[in-house]
Each structure stands twice: as structure tokens, then as C-alpha cells.
Amino acid sequence: MKWKEVCENKQLQDLPFKIELNKWGQIVMSPVKIKHSFYQGRILLLLESLLKIGEVMPECAINTSDGVKVANVVWCSEQRFQQIEEEVSASIAPEICIEVKSSGNTEGEMQFKKQLYFCAGSIEVWLCDEEGNITFYNKQGLLAKSILVPDFPEQIKR
């Protein structure tokens, strides 16, 4: 299956799952809990308050070597946004890709997606665990804090 077909399929709309494709075009669905949505929303709001340029987006579809993955939250520079704005799924990853871990995700899956985003062009990948702790990475490895958004907190709190 192609991502455009997924987007246009009426049966796949309004499902309570995050939908992605693997490299064989198979649909992968991941259920999310309220806490996951809370962290995703809070991250989005914090990014918008800290960055006055570029675009912050939820649920951004990105072409990767393992199919289309959907980052929970992304930040895109104006230049990169203009490049991907009209695409069905992003041909290049936004500069910051953020994944919020669900109870169904393994640590291995999170690390795998991190590498996929870097290979697709991301500059930083942030991982949020189930307690709201954020870890920041660039291609070289773990960062003490984000280089692109140094004021972003290391933990999302209620």
C-alpha cells in the first residue's frame, strides 16, 4: 500500500490508532492512551512558545527507508516546510522529530525510529518516555539539551 492510498481510504479515517507503513507497504497501527496525547500536546505548545520561526506540526508523515513513519510532533524551518508543504508524506524529515513512547512501544522500536529520522534528514530527534522525560539526540548521540531549542525542558510536567 502507498501512503496516499492510506490517506484516501475512508475505512482508515477516524481510527483511534496511529497508522504507519512498513517498508513492504503493510499498515502498522499503534493505540495511544490519554497520557500519550497529553505529552504530545504539551510538547507542541512548548515548542510553539519557544520558537517564533518555522512550523510546529503534530503527526507528520515522513518517508523513511522502512516505509512511512509518523512522528508525534515535529519542527520544520520555513525553508524545509516550503519543500514538503504540498507532499503527501515528507520527502525529507523536519529538523526536529519527536516521538512519545506508548506502552506498546519497545525501547528497540524507539531507537530504530530515531535512526530512521536521522537517515531521512532530521537534525535532532527527541524521545519522550511514559513519565514525560525527554532525551535529546543528534546524529553524534545523546545531548544534554537540545541545540536547536536549548530552553526546552527535560521533563514535561502537568
Structure keywords:
single chain; 4 helices; alpha+beta; 158 residues
Task: Describe the model.
The longest helix is centred in the N-terminal third of the chain and has 17 residues, at 34-50. The mean pLDDT is 91. The strands form 2 sheets. A 6-stranded mixed β-sheet has the order 3-4-5-6-7-8. The protein is built from 4 helices and 8 strands. The protein is of the alpha+beta class and 158 residues long. A hairpin with a 5-residue loop joins strand 6 (124-128) and strand 7.
Q: In oligomeric terms, what are we looking at?
A: single chain
Rg over CA atoms, rounded to whole Å, is: 15 Å
Number of DSSP strand runs: 8
- Strand order, largest beta sheet: 3-4-5-6-7-8
What is the fold's blueprint, element by element?
Blueprint: H1 3-8, E1 17-21, E2 27-31, H2 34-50, E3 55-64, E4 67-76, H3 78-84, E5 96-100, H4 107-119, E6 124-128, E7 134-138, E8 141-143
Parallel strand pairs: 5-6
Antiparallel strand pairs: 1-2, 3-4, 4-5, 6-7, 7-8
Provide a short characterization of the protein structure.
This protein is α+β, with helices and mostly antiparallel strands and about 160 residues long. It contains four helices and eight strands.
